[in-house]
Amino acid sequence: MFQINIQKDHNEIWDNLGSIIPFLKPWLKQQRWSGLLSVEKFDLETDQFLTFKDQSDLKIIGHFLTVNANNAQTHLFLPLIFYMNKLEIDSSPEIVINTNSSEFYISQAECYHDFINLLIKNFQKQKTYELKKQNYFEFELENEKLLEDFDLISSEVFKKGETTNFLTKIKGKSRNLFLKSYRKISTSREPMLIRELFKLNYENIPQPIGFAKLRNKQENICFNLQEFITFDNDLGYYFWKNLIHRLEYPSPEHQVAFINDSNLNLNLLGLVDLVINFHQKSSNLKIHQFEKEKFTNDDIQSFKDSQIKIMDEILKQRDENLKIFKNISKNFNQIRKVLQALENFIGFNKITVHQDLHLA
Fold first, then answer.
1. 89 DSSP assignment
2. What's the half-sphere exposure (Cβ side, CA atoms, 13 Å) at 328?
């Protein structure tokens, strides 16, 4: 929990909550979705804001922010709830603001039950908010049936918000939903891909329900509402279990067979079929954002830099355990030779397996 002291009167701050934003920089830096954890210095500006709820003791405001860092700009959409009663939401407040006369609290808005309910109603009504500078915030509904007579029971934020995007499971009486909040304002390919693949009857994706977007010169998705899917198995468990075992018992005599589950082969084959089907369906998309990318010199240099950095970090620790690092210099020289061979692949189509698995 972040404590922030502001030597001003409570009412002065409460009536102008935008003045608090610069004080939130230490908290913002710690959020995984901000991408600022390794950034030493940055400036924070408020471009405009969207008021979802305005009461005497509780306000929900979506802030459109610009982060200036390393000679580059990043734009964020950050919905926050400001409240005076600590019991207003189930979870503990993320930030406490101490003023001269009292204190109040701040959390990310998705933690608040009534905000989730408000978003669902906005999707049902396909509401549009008019902002400054001829900007609009629009709720578009893709599938009305999945929101018909939806009664909200509860909501749950995944991993306390410590995810690349802010993820919320929404539990209803008849079905569960999933809300993905994109904090970074950019042209994301994911919502478009989900929408188009669903039209092509690709079955291994959640059904899109609605998208809330900032519309100005272009359209940027801020909220992605979709059906919630429960997976039968987590293949990552096998890899994680094996990694932990090898870290605990690094010597060869303690290494275990990687595949020790009778169902793993079947699940892996299912995963292969899923990715194959994904490529077959996505190849039919006649959209320029999904054209295959070519392998370039910049890709090679980026890969080399990252691998050499890792090797240098390992070499720094070599003297601490000579037994393990006895032949490491020889091995690294072989790796460097292999890196040179990457030039043979310039012009080839990229294989983005990691991204494909996320999307599929």
1. S
2. 16
User: pTM here?
Assistant: 0.77
- Cα Rg of the chain, angstroms: 24
AA identity, residue 229: I
Helix 297-316, helix 328-340: angle, nearest 10: 180
For CA atoms 205, 162, 4, 77, the dihedral sign is negative
Supply the DSSP symbol for 111.
Answer: G
Q: Give per-residue burial for 224-262: e unless 16+ CB within 10 Å, then b.
A: bbbeeeeeeeeeeebeeebeeeeeeeeeeeeeeeeeeee
Cα distance between residue 106 and residue 14, in whole Å: 12
Residue 229 token pair = 């899917």
115 in Cβ contact with 121 (< 8 Å): no
For residue 106, give the nearest of 78, 81, 79, 77 by alpha carbon. 81
59-85 burial string, b = 16+ CB within 10 Å, else e?
Answer: bbbbbbbebeeeeeebebbbbbbbbbe
Long-range CB contact pairs, 95-98, < 8 A, 24+:
95/1, 95/2, 95/3, 95/4, 95/24, 95/27, 96/1, 96/2, 96/3, 96/4, 97/4, 97/6, 97/13, 97/20, 97/23, 98/3, 98/4, 98/5, 98/6
- Are the C-beta atoms of 242 and 168 separated by less than 8 Å? no
Question: Residue 38 and residue 223: Cα distance in Å, rounded?
Answer: 26
For the chain of 360 residues, list the mean pLDDT of each consecutive stretch of 10: 92 93 94 89 92 95 94 93 88 92 94 95 96 91 91 90 88 94 86 84 86 89 92 65 63 52 66 76 72 81 81 68 59 75 81 55
Are the C-beta atoms of 212 and 223 separated by less than 8 Å?
yes
